Amino acid sequence: MTLTNPTTLPHWLQPHSLAWYKQLSELQHTYHYDWNSTLTGPNGETIFDEEVLQMIADKKVLDVGCGHGEFTKKCGFVAKEIVGFDSTDTFLQTGYVNKPDNVSFVLGNTKEGFPFGRNEFDFVYIRKGPTSAYPHLTQVTKNGATILGLHPGDDMHKELPTLFPNLFQPTAGAPISQKIQAQLEKSQFTSYTIETINSTELLTEPIDIIKLRSFGQHPSIFEQLMEKDLQMITEIFENHATKDGLAVTFSRYIVRAIV
User: pTM above 0.85?
Assistant: First the structure.
């Protein structure tokens, strides 16, 4: 008996495609992970968030790939003005709820560029948003502006294909890093660096493996995995977890660039 490969199931969507984001927004209206886990700190996300909040005071800021705008609105309490940009209208509609006056949202696709004027922004961040934004940012930022990016690392959850073969597929090489590097090379920034930050995520219980794998997918995929694979997943989980949970790598890339 082998675990199910969910990519072969009906209704599977490529994660992070426009159709996948649309479905996720319709399912839960916010971009939040629905599995239970604990992150050790410091980790890439906490480091990135703290760095952004320290750098945006009195600046006009662009949040690329803002999702439902939770972090955008948090930054609005520090920044002079902030614009959230995203391709999913349902997420943006959630963002409008209880937003500060200095926060606004714009619908658009980074692959088509930005509908903003030249030299409009002092600071830009991409918090798990599209790398396709980088080549367009020099057109809307001031000379010397800072750009920060946060992206999943290629080592993210690297243990899962070995622990749960077929349910998760291994990744060959470093496709995310290569994609980021290629976009940055096209961006004509004055300088940039890419930092890898690895920490540990502790998954709480076996059902979290299924929730993670079916995140953003049609509910039928979660239901089929629960029916077919929960017993085997539970056995594997219990054989490798400690009392704190199942430890897997939590990996993030942080991009720091100057226009």
Answer: yes
